[in-house]
Amino acid sequence: MDKKVISFALQLTGALLLLALLHIGFLFARKSSIPLDLILMGYLLNFAMAMGIYYTMVSLAKKQNKNLGFVFLFGSTLKFAVYFLIFNPLFMQDGSLSKLEFFTFFIPYIACLVVETLALVKLLKEID
What number is the average pLDDT over the span 54-58? Predict the structure, then answer.
């Protein structure tokens, strides 16, 4: 496996673990009713999608580096599709979407987006 992918995986894991602890601690302090399995699913799905997107970008960087931006944008679109196909129906079972439910997916989404963006910038600098 490529050193870049392993480094990215470690950075992403560290960022998401720290954020998940803070997120779960916040929800626990507020006595939130959001099931832990939905929170973990949000973090795991975002992690898996970010890893897939980054792996694709590293693979394309060697061959077609001009398409990296499109891969990044497609990945973000894919993440939104996953939200609307998986999470939104689960959250809307009671007829409304609370802020806590919304952030269950989008906190890890934003964290992954930041780590992916920084990794893409670094990857593009290496190409030049």
Answer: 92
**CA nearest 111: which of 11, 2, 4?**
11
C-beta separation of 100 from 34 below 8 A: yes
| Contact call for residues 104 and 43 (beta carbons, < 8 A) | no
Q: What is the mean pLDDT of the chain?
A: 90
Going by pLDDT thresholds of 50, 70 and 90, the confidence category of residue 11 is very high
Model's pTM, two decimal places?
Answer: 0.90
| Rounded Cα distance, 23 and 111, in Å | 12
The rounded distance, in Å, linking the Cα atoms of 40 and 105 is 9
Question: What ranges do the domains of the chain cover?
Answer: 3-127
The overall longest dimension of the chain from CA atoms, in Å, is 51
Collect all residues with Cβ–Cβ distance below 8 Å to 52 and sequence separation of at least 6: 75
User: CB atoms < 10 A from the CB of 67, how many?
Assistant: 14
